[in-house]
Amino acid sequence: MAPILSSFKDDALIVLDNLADRASGLVNPAVRLGVTGLSRAGKTVFISSLVHNLLNGGRLPVFEPIRSGRVSKVRLEPQPDDAVPRFQYEDHIAALVRDRVWPDSTRAISQLRITLDYESASGWNRMFSPGRLSIDIVDYPGEWLLDLPLLGQDFREFSESTVRRARAGTRATLSREWLALASVSGATVAADEGSARRIAESFTAYLQACKADDRSLSTLPPGRFLMPGDLEGSPALTFSPLPDLPQGRAPKGSLWAMMERRYEAYKTHVVSPFFREHFARLDRQIVLVDALQAINRGQEALSDLEQALADVLACFRPGTNSWLSSLFTRRIDRVLIAATKADHLHHESHDRLERITARLVSRAAERIGMSGAGLEVMALASVRATREATVSHDGHTLPVIVGTPIAGERINGDVFDGERKTAIFPGDLPEDPEVLFEPMNGHKVSKSTEAERAMPELNFVRFRPPPLDETRGGLKLSVPHIRLDGAMQFLLGDRLA
After folding, report:
1. CA quadruple 363, 369, 373, 375: dihedral positive or negative?
2. How many helices (DSSP H) and strands (DSSP E) are in the chain?
């Protein structure tokens, strides 16, 4: 069951926002596209590449409106929400194209509007449609999305679920200092600001250790503890779940009561406004996933990513928007789960990456009734940083990828300077996704999969963005990609029909 995410007051405000959006849409039709993903999944790169390819006539053969020549003009326009920071497209694309460095990752919410003038494929629609669609891209951290389930949990439930995770697997070592500090302080002792701050800081350090590259765990609410922004140091971020709470209610004036009050303030003043003002107004959503990183870190990271994606999907309101229903409440009727960094694999493994990602979300999608036409899984690379080649090794021909590793990357002890290209064999993903999931689900691995389990280790290297080719006239071509056009067709194609 999806959590209850809004109160009656929130629902009333959402209705007012949707009425305002609908009234504006009568003059200028628009679709609000949410772009999110967990840490380092490539949200900024996805938006920058999408916009750059639209503005610069990129190769988008699967995106039917472009392929058929029905789009006559594409332009950036002022965004509708003046209180939301603008997505700094120009800065990000300059980093990618001019400096060949990856832009800074998403740290807060931002927005960008790109408008397409087009000719409808239907003669009937051409008589009545203005032939214009604005795409309002709303970029926000995936960690904020993982906060939404907190709206359906009280402090005891939040504490129990967080502590239960913290005592299992790798987290047990990482959480030892925080749990010991919280246990020694005791839930029923008198509230003390110094103790609250020390416990909150230790809890934050535990979350940061879980998120580190060498562990890559994903289920880490509250999200603002990792991205505090202007809330850093505020009481709304100076709390922690507490282990082994006794039965009953928190004694007045206790540390428990203080933590509980601040947790509720976090939900009221941080999580609820994000849901009401941004998330509840989305029409379409893409969730970017770095599945390769989780696979490379092992079964625990993969299992944690599966849980995080289940929590993400539980936040969506599946269904189809009718003209009447969209006046009052929106439903995100199309969700794309995109496994990024497909350019780190040879194309022979792209379908395997898709199957693994589909397996990650299949159970959660069935539970919320979103399997089918409303949900798509795809492997893509927003910016293709490599090309494919083959090499001979010990009498065998191996498929490899060629690119320029980021300065400081190491391969077999060789340190790269950011200028020299190299070819690597990235390894093979298993053909059967269950090979990765059977052991952590308590099932025995069948003999038929034992050979697959002996596959080479996956070898992922961070590459620089590619240099862009130029035409004879000196015009730089658009950013290369893998299946970005397929993502655009699924998310936007029907709105440009």
Report:
1. negative
2. 19, 12
Q: Which amino acid is at 259?
A: M
Only one residue has tokens 């989305």, namely 282
Residues near 434 by Cβ (< 8 Å), separated by ≥ 6?
359, 449
Strands (E), 101-184: 110-118, 132-139
What is the crossing angle of helices 176-185 and 193-211, to 10°? 160
**Amino acid identity at 96:** L
DSSP 152: G
Contact (Cβ atoms closer than 8 angstroms) between residue 199 and residue 240: yes
Per-position pLDDT tens, the chain of length 497 = 344 455 555 555 545 555 555 545 555 899 999 999 987 899 999 999 999 999 999 999 999 999 999 999 999 999 999 999 999 999 999 999 989 999 988 788 999 999 999 998 765 555 556 699 999 999 999 888 889 999 999 999 999 999 999 999 999 999 999 999 999 888 889 999 999 999 999 999 999 999 998 888 999 999 999 988 778 888 989 999 999 999 999 999 999 999 999 999 999 999 999 998 999 999 999 999 999 989 888 889 999 999 999 988 888 765 544 433 443 456 788 999 999 999 999 998 999 999 999 999 998 888 777 666 689 999 999 999 999 998 887 888 888 999 999 999 988 888 999 999 999 988 889 989 988 887 554 444 444 444 444 434 677 889 999 998 765 555 567 899 999 999 999 999 999 98
With CA atoms as reference, report the closest residue to 337 among 46, 1, 109.
Answer: 46
- The answer to whether the pTM exceeds 0.85 is yes
Q: What is the chain's percent helix, strand, coil content, to nearest 5?
A: 45, 15, 40
